[in-house]
Amino acid sequence: MEYNSTRNKLIIAEYGRNVQKMIEYAISVEDREKRNQLAKGIIRVMGQINPHLRDVADFTHKLWDHLFIISDFKLDVDSPYPIPSAEILNVKPEKVPYSDKKFAFRHYGRNIELMIEKATAMEEGPAKERVVHLIANHLKKSYLTWNRDSVDDEVIVEHLKIMSKGQLKLSENFRLNSSYDILSKNKPAITKNKTNNNNNPIKRNNNNIKKNLNFSQNKRKEN
Asked: Whole-angstrom Cα distance, residue 143 to residue 83?
């Protein structure tokens, strides 16, 4: 009896051991014409074993690449496609660049910082004032997401000042939404089968800020 521990390692397990044995046999054949015939026959078998690959672009090219990989690049046959080299399997992926931008307050997220930058660039007027009010209330909602007890409005005002580098200020008569109202609205409304995302006050307020920013920009273009 032959055990897996004594067999050669499967290079591409999806094709099974029999395909790998056929390729090993093809490598041992000295006649080149016969090797070419065997290679084509193996390609047909590989295509039948993995029909899902037919949905992959350039299906046959993929099979030929797998043929050479399984043979450990030892199979010398005439391929209708460029023969891959062993080096392609050892190529390290490119390093993913990460943003080194520092957040003033991570719990508010990057999107709110972008909104503050947009609001800072707006012309003074009722539209900008409305956007600043929405942003301030959004900051308080986000803050209460992590701190469920309460938050002093002066803390939110100070955070807005820091994040906007002192360029955004609230009107003297403006009052932020109460913590009680925010926390009660933050409770998710769950239907029988799914959660209604439209009832999420933070998401809804976020959308309102974006709409006001877009409206202000469009109005400025018209003028």
From this structure: 58
Query: pLDDT tens-digit profile of 4-63?
Result: 667 778 889 889 999 999 999 999 999 999 999 999 999 999 999 888 777 777 888 999
Give the C-alpha separation, 54 to 19, whole Å. Answer: 18
Any idea what DSSP says for residue 72? T
Write out pLDDT tens, residues 183-212: 776 665 544 444 455 555 566 666 767 666
Enumerate residues 6+ apart whose C-beta is below 8 A from 76: 32, 35
Distance CA 17, CA 14 (A): 9
Residue 79, sorted as left (phi over 0), alpha (psi -120 to 50) or beta, turns out to be beta
Torsion of CA 150, 196, 136, 153, to 10 degrees: -10
Closest CA to 15 of 57, 71, 74: 71
Q: Which helix (H) or strand (E) holds 214?
A: helix 201-222
How far apart, in whole angstroms, are the C-alpha atoms of residue 35 and residue 28? 9
pTM listed for this prediction: 0.45
The helix (run of H) or strand (run of E) holding residue 8 is: none
